[in-house]
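Fold this sequence, please.
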Amino acid sequence: MKKLIALLIISFCFVNAGHSQAVTKDAVLGEWLAESKDGKVLIYKQGEKYFGKISWGKDGPDKKDIKNPDEKLRSQSIVGSVILKGFDFTGKYWENGTIYDPLSGKTYSCTIKMEKSNELKIRGFVGISLLGRTTIWTRAK
């Protein structure tokens, strides 16, 4: 019986090897390429909160934020816009933040998960996380 339990524990550890990674709170910092490859976001920290601003866009710095719900901001460039706001690190991932989509002008609740050191799963949603969409960002080189 002891051998069976030991075998089960070893099997469980082997099967789950590589599927979970100890994540440090600042592992998210740096520049990330959007899944669509049309923009980069620089994630940074202010105090204990995490934010992200567009650092590069394929359309260049002249593309304006014309869909912004705030009319005063529609003449500003999308590059330089803060699109990730107010994330807390909860020990495994970043949550309680928002993501702004400049293509639609809408802001969504958001979580960020890092399952690989060079990959982020960004989940934007309305209400509950089940009602949302996930996109994968990769660390920029």
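The first helix runs from residue 2 to 16. The chain has one domain: 23-139.
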